[in-house]
Amino acid sequence: MCAHIRTVVKAKTVLELATGTGLIAKNIVNAAAHIEATDASAEMIVEARRDNRSAKLHFSVQDMFRLPYADKSFDVVIVSNALHIVPQPEKALAEIRRVLKDGGVLIAPTFTHAENSFSGKVRAFFMRLAGFPLHSRWTSEEYLRFLRQNGWTVRKSAVLKASFPLTYAECVKSEG
Description:
The chain is an alpha/beta fold. The chain is 31% helix and 29% strand. Strands 1, 2, 3, 4, 5, 6, 7 and 8 form an eight-stranded mixed β-sheet that branches. Helix 2 links the parallel strand 1 (13-17) and strand 2. The protein is globular, with a radius of gyration of 15 Å.
């Protein structure tokens, strides 16, 4: 997945929301012009900063529902495996739309739990116990429909096999 994301972010300004330990940002930073990687958790940002060796990568604690960036600031916004665990993901998408430049790209891979096998449901249960509640349970088709209903045109999607099914979605703002 990171190899594909690198081609999308090549020489672009990037915002990553819910970066966690910064794994994606650190894997794509050499391709990007600059990355602002954010998370709501100060502990995650401390961990992400620990082995950051790039001047092009900046980590900070931010609320994805109230971002401190100007309108149309970024060429690419990445929100990976987060929309299903936040309350009101449509509000996060509206804020992403605000900070994304016209013609910019939203990369939003998300675990799609609704079609899980029994073992996947067991993993989801343990994720909830670990503090990762599932606010939205989508099948891949439901997730892509959710993105379209919230003003995005899905230009590329694929279901990737991981510990949970992961729906990779690459979107642009819909007209209108």
